[in-house]
Amino acid sequence: MKPGVLSKTPAARPTVSMPRLSPSGWILLALLPVLAAAPLVLPTYQVTLANNIGIFALATLGLVLLTGVAGMTSFGQAAFIGVSAYATAYLATVSAADLPAPLAWMAGSPLAGLAVGLLLTLAIATVLGAVTLRLSGHYLPLGTIAWGLSLFYLFGNLEFLGGHTGLSGIPALSLFGIAFDKAETLFYLIWAVLLLAVVATLNLLDSRVGRAIRALRGGQRMSESMGVDSFRAKMTAFLVAALYAGLAGWLYAYTQRFVSPAPFSLQAGIDFLFMALIGGVGQVWGAVIGAAGVTFAKQWLQDLLPHLLGRTGNFEAIVFGLLIVLLMQRLPGGIAGWIAKTFERRRQRPATLESMDLPDAEPLPRRPMPQKGEVVLEAKGVTRRFGGLVANRDISFSVRAGEILAVIGPNGAGKSTLFNQLSCVDRPTSGEILFRGERIDGRTARAMAGAGLSRSFQHVKLLPTMSVLENVAIGAHLRGSKGVAAAALRLDRAEEARLLAEARRQLVRVGLGQYLHAEAGSLALGQQRILEIARALCADPCLLLLDEPAAGLRFLEKQALAELLVKLRSEGMAILLVEHDMDFVMGLVDRVYVMEFGERIAEGPPETIQTDPAVLEAYLGGIE
């Protein structure tokens, strides 16, 4: 087709401008009429069951974000529901005379109960998260069990909350003159809140903040080196999960109109985790599927088993446990995960840049590059000891803007240790490391990402199930500023378009423009290494540290990489690379720094290093 033909064809214009719905958008469109009609056609008992499912799904949605997406297992979600439910029930039943005069207006106010319940839940979650989220491994879930039990017993031991008897006599909910005194009217409120939470969660995950949260699961070290504050991302996921639990607690109090400690026990927390696992712990819609599946399965088993066995008892718990084990074996990703994979195989992803639905956006601002020849990185007498082992001894060199320096040496020469110190993953035992004249040893890798130092890794670190485009966009994290609220309300679209456009530009720059939508884990090893360079470039660095960038690349790929590095050098970037491929190094770099047993044995231009007797002796004829 010739240029301009499409624009001259009137019939083609609507096709180009038509919005494309995501799978979640189609699900919402399909659900809305079903939910609108449900209270009109279902008996009251079924509507009440659907109300419970909506509340459970809202609480489970928080666990999907916290456990499935961020990788932090929590057994305390039910306890957070209890905090909000008790705050709501107390304010709904207390008399104005029993409250301090400035707070008397809160008595009997549903909105005051909602505000206090959410604020109290978030305050407790902030304190508990500040302590618990610093734990790792199995200590994290054990920590959530500990404070979950503490809150459960606290509910039963506070007399003003009714002790173990609980609080009863909660009046029917009334908001803005609308009475929610029946299961049918509560249904619309509960499911409206749930769907809004689902949309907010989908928006959040499809954002700069969402990428930081998703990177927590298997990519913390990588994301930290790109400027992501991992602890802040953890707290964000934790507090959003607590917020959903608080909303669920408020709805629960007005649905049941009675609150006691039993529904907020550790067992209830385990049940919510089961809902997330069965529905699909990594899928937002898995919260709804899991809550519905568990609720209906329990009801069905409670009705069926007494007839089959001829006696009553908690047999449904035994059968339900076996069903969960079987489901986890057959569908480890849950029901929603299985559905997503099935449709993913059928849906063709765009493979080329031309088919991308990414509009051009205004380029992000760039940092001023140093003047050519300016010393960007300098090591002065760097020594690193591990007990009695000296990994680096008195290492000194500098890297200038517009220069490529290679650090080479046999295996065990101390190159990786030095690289970790230069990138602020480790710090020297003695000596100094200067970046643009400022001492940086002891600073964090995250701080250095903001200063203009970016790196790749010896062993590729990426998020395999995330798209190539989003993996690279993580590199631009510090070049955006929109937070959680803007992401949830989709007010960050202009900034997000600029971040993704930058990621696309860098991918095209390194020759991976045709893989934008592919899963990063599906790329060949050499392509994954190139992806890491694109991600590093997305951070707009003035110093690029590359750890064996040519490893796994084919001949033509190495040529393309060399051309890219030469172009970056001409733009004034300083580049330090650790590499084993001598053919690649000697035809590319300006200077070579040779190490053996943690010490410098030679330094100079490639032609000098190739004939240096000490270097030839160290390598014994070549490098592995």
Describe the structure in brief.
The chain is an alpha/beta fold.
General description of the model:
GO terms for molecular function: ATP binding; ATP hydrolysis activity; branched-chain amino acid transmembrane transporter activity. It comes from Azospirillum oryzae. Its main location: membrane. This is Amino acid/amide ABC transporter membrane protein 2, HAAT family /amino acid/amide ABC transporter ATP-binding protein 1, HAAT family. The chain is α/β, with parallel strands linked by helices and 624 residues long. It folds into three domains: 35-264, no CATH class; 371-452 and 542-624, P-loop containing nucleotide triphosphate hydrolases (Rossmann fold); 461-540, no CATH class. Helix content is 53%, strand content 12%. It has 24 helices and 14 strands. A six-stranded mixed beta sheet has the order 10-11-12-7-13-14, sandwiched between helices. A four-stranded antiparallel beta sheet has the order 6-5-8-9, covered by helices on one side. A two-stranded antiparallel ribbon has the order 1-4. A hairpin with a 2-residue loop joins strand 13 and strand 14 (599-604). Helix 3 crosses helix 11. The protein is elongated, with a radius of gyration of 29 Å. The model is unreliable at 1-19 and 348-356 (pLDDT under 50).
Total of domains: 3
- Within the largest sheet, what's the order of strands? 10-11-12-7-13-14
Which structural class do you get from the secondary structure elements?
A: alpha/beta
Oligomer: single chain
| Relative helix content | 40-55%
Please report the number of helical segments. 24
> Mean pLDDT, nearest integer?
89
Radius of gyration, in angstroms, nearest whole number: 29 Å
Coarse shape: elongated
Euclidean distance between termini CA atoms: 52 Å
Pfam family, one: BCA_ABC_TP_C
GO cellular component, one term: plasma membrane
GO molecular function, one term: ATP hydrolysis activity
Domain ABC transporter: 377-622
